[in-house]
Write a sequence for this structure.
């Protein structure tokens, strides 16, 4: 049995003096769609960025603990870069490079890695765009700038861009949050298709979406893992009641320094 | 590691070194300029009061001093600062507060034009308009040309700092029951004293550092300060004209002036920075 | 009450009007002074290489050689400034540790505060001798014996322009939305690969920096006068001395009273400088503003 796609153990992350992740330990099985759920500010985006080390770009970021991606300790191992080259990411707001053409956006990853050239590259770009369900809409204007696409198309372009490097793990940070329902549905369909070939970690604040797409996941609250496991067990109650009780518990206990209910 | 990734790493290394070399070059150049100024100029400066008060020595003789030129610099910069402030502050206020009006639009273009004018061009114009009728160069003409050169910087800085006042404060100022222009001058401008002070400092910094405008207007009187309406000189002019002479003592003198001018300019620059953080020069 | 308000407005408005008048005066005075020589010489003012104020009668005035010098020094200095700026910005943003960023930033600030005559003095006493000792003059037919040359002038002017060009490029680079930086990192792009894409996004600002620097280079007098060698020489080989329009004007400062047509000729030359500087700077500012607007739009 292969090692999990991602495994973290006792992961702590600080931004300066502010600790945003507390002893986070999760295991993402291969081939799963793994949801990271939680209210805004709970640290789910930070957790995602810790996996591919993007968190280090932020001011004063400090990471402690184990983060294993595709079997490699990405904060200590020399072969971290090689492992991370098999990880792709899609962001909340579509961010195709506006000054590059649709073709060049998809081709940028493969070009950097020297994966293909000329005809081979054309085929790879086509493959990625087909997988992202965008090919038919753009096949006649591959040279147009990416900025000429609509929001939903841009997000699919970003998915194609990530897929073109043939990742084994795809990190998706609330990919449908800024899209209209029609385009969101298209992306969800895509995620279902892709999950057959890649492991996907899906950060979302939408519990229904998690139920629709994910097989397993983790619920985060204020930088801590509250529950982890199959989706059905995490979301055994309604999401809003879970969050409500978590908020209530935070208010009436001390760990985060919030005042006692009676101390106002 | 795969060969392609090795090549990429090497290329990245190369670019890293190349760009670092560029940054290092800049550090080196600034360092060398400042070092030269200190090493070459300190001996003259260490002559103390005589350097600041005496006129230059004879060619091939004593170093002497930059007294008259320093006086010239102080006088012309003072007048230029006053003039550029007197014109630039109101103009800056107009540019900020009456943006759409025809006068403001014309002023916008005017300030741009003066800012784009090479300073030697300004000097030449003042030459034809002041020096020729007066039949001689003068500290006054120099001050006028320096004032014109400094003017756009003052106006632009005042405009920017007024524009940067948060809307909430503006609304508060205008809701006090004063008429518009009273509010501007009695409330907004004092609120923005820092910005105005920065503007004036910037103007004087400009005036201090310029040579080309005084070339045609100040004259070349290095041995005494004769008065505002008579030929004079400035530190920058002294440096410019004494830099290439074959006489060792005059070159020494020029370096002393370089150090002095750099110190003066640096003080103004740091005062500006203290007042306003980063400023586009 | 009304009277005092109007008084303030009147004061401000009339002062502003004076500012407008100053600008108008510059243009008018130059035009009127230049009329004479331009009427006599016509186009040959710009095309003729013959500059001879002492010639029979009015004198003969052609600024073709210094004009070529202005363009060559301007282009060279701009290239140097833009190259150094882009390289430094890339270094600071992609490779440099925090302390180095601070140090370079302070150095740039100090550099921007230096009067141009200090640069000129340094150019004359440190750079020209280097050029001379390196024997670079020998590479040219009329190589400079003193080390003062087109190259020397362009190098020092380029250095002088670098802080300003840097600030324009750096501001644009900083303004690129962080999400694109994250995207590049997530694709595994290395420093120079990221720089390539990000610079592509700020192309227009780099162009603006180039134009604005060129405008300043065209007008630069002090540095050039001290380092270019003041010779009526076509600027074909960089290690030869030459003139620019600005250094020509500066060199005549003592003679202005002596020759009948000289003031007019200098004014015409100045008018040309003003026009060139104004056009390039306005173009550069326009592009810079368009780039800023576009950047805000794309980031949204």
């Amino acid at each position: 049995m292969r090692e999990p796609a991602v495994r973290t153990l006792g992961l702590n992350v600080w931004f300066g003096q502010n600790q945003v992740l507390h002893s986070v330990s999760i295991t993402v099985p291969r081939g799963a769609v793994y949801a990271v759920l939680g209210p805004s500010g709970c640290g789910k985006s930070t957790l995602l960025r810790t996996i591919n080390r993007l968190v280090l770009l932020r001011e004063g970021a400090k990471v402690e603990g184990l983060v294993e991606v595709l079997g490699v300790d990405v904060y200590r191992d020399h072969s971290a870069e090689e492992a991370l080259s098999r990880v792709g990411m899609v962001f909340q707001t579509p961010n195709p490079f506006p000054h590059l053409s649709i073709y060049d956006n998809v081709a940028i990853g493969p070009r950097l890695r020297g994966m293909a050239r000329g005809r081979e590259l054309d085929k790879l770009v086509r493959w990625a765009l087909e997988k992202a369900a965008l090919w038919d809409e753009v096949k006649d204007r591959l040279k147009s700038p990416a900025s000429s696409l609509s929001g939903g198309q841009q997000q699919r372009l970003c998915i194609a861009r990530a897929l073109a490097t043939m990742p084994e793990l795809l990190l998706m940070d609330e990919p449908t949050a800024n899209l209209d329902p029609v385009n969101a549905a298209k992306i969800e369909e895509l995620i279902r298709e892709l999950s057959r070939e890649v492991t996907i970690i899906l950060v979302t604040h939408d519990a229904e979406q998690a139920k629709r797409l994910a097989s397993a996941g983790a619920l985060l609250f204020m930088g801590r893992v509250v529950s982890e496991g199959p989706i059905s067990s995490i979301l055994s109650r309604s999401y809003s009641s879970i969050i409500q009780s978590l908020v209530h518990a935070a208010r009436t206990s001390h760990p985060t320094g919030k005042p006692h209910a009676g101390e106002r | 590691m795969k060969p392609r990734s090795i090549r990429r790493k090497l290329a990245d290394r190369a670019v890293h070194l190349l760009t670092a070399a560029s940054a290092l070059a800049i550090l080196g150049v600034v360092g060398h300029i400042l070092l030269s100024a200190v090493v070459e100029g300190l001996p003259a400066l260490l002559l103390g009061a005589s350097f600041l008060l005496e006129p230059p020595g004879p060619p091939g003789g004593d170093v002497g001093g930059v007294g008259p030129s320093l006086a010239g610099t102080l006088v012309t910069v003072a007048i230029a600062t006053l003039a550029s402030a007197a014109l630039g502050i109101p103009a800056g206020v107009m540019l900020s507060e009456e943006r759409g009006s025809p006068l403001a639009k014309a002023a916008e273009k005017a300030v741009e034009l003066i800012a784009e004018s090479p300073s030697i061009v300004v000097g030449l114009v003042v030459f034809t308009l002041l020096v020729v009728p007066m039949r001689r160069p003068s500290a006054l003409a120099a001050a006028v040309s320096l004032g014109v050169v400094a003017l756009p910087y003052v106006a632009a800085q005042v405009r920017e700092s007024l524009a940067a006042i948060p809307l909430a404060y503006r609304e508060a100022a205008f809701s006090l029951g004063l008429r518009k222009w009273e509010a501007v001058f009695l409330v907004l401008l004092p609120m923005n004293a820092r910005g105005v002070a920065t503007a004036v400092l910037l103007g004087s910094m400009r005036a201090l550092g310029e040579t080309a405008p005084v070339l045609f207007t100040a004259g070349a009187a290095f041995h005494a300060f004769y008065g505002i309406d008579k030929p004079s000189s400035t530190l920058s002019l002294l440096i410019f004209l004494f830099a290439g002479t074959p006489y060792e003592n005059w070159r020494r003198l020029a370096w002393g002036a370089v150090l002095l001018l750099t110190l003066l300019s640096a003080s103004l620059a740091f005062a500006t920075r203290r007042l306003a953080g980063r400023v586009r020069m | 009450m009304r009277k005092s308000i109007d008084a303030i407005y009147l004061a401000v408005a009339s002062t502003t009007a004076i500012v407008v008048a100053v600008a108008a005066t510059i243009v008018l005075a130059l035009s009127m002074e230049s009329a004479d020589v331009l009427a006599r010489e016509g186009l040959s003012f710009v095309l003729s290489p013959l500059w001879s104020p002492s010639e029979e009668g009015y004198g003969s005035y052609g600024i073709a050689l210094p004009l070529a010098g202005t363009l060559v020094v301007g282009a060279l200095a701009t290239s140097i400034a833009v190259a150094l700026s882009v390289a430094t910005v890339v270094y600071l943003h992609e490779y440099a540790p925090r302390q180095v960023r601070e140090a370079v930033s302070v150095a740039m600030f100090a550099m921007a505060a230096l009067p141009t005559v200090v640069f000129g003095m340094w150019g004359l006493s440190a750079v020209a001798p280097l050029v001379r000792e390196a024997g670079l003059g020998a590479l040219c037919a009329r190589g400079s014996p003193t080390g003062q040359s087109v190259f020397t002038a362009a190098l020092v002017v380029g250095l002088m322009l670098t802080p300003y060009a840097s600030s324009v490029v750096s501001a644009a680079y900083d303004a690129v939305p962080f999400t694109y930086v994250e995207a590049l990192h997530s694709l595994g792009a290395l420093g120079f690969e990221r720089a390539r894409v990000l610079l592509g996004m700020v192309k227009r600002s780099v162009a603006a920096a180039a134009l604005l620097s060129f405008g300043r280079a065209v007008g630069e007098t002090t540095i050039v006068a001290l380092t270019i060698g003041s010779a009526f020489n076509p600027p074909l080989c960089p290690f030869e001395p030459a003139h620019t329009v600005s250094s020509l004007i500066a060199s005549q400062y003592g003679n202005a009273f002596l020759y009948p047509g000289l003031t007019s000729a200098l004014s015409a030359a100045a008018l040309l400088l003003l026009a060139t500087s104004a056009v390039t700077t306005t173009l550069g500012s326009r592009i810079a503003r368009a780039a800023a607007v576009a950047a805000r739009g794309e980031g949204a």
Q: What stands out?
A: The longest helix of chain B spans residues 3-45. The CA atoms of residues 53 and 250 of chain B lie 16 Å apart.
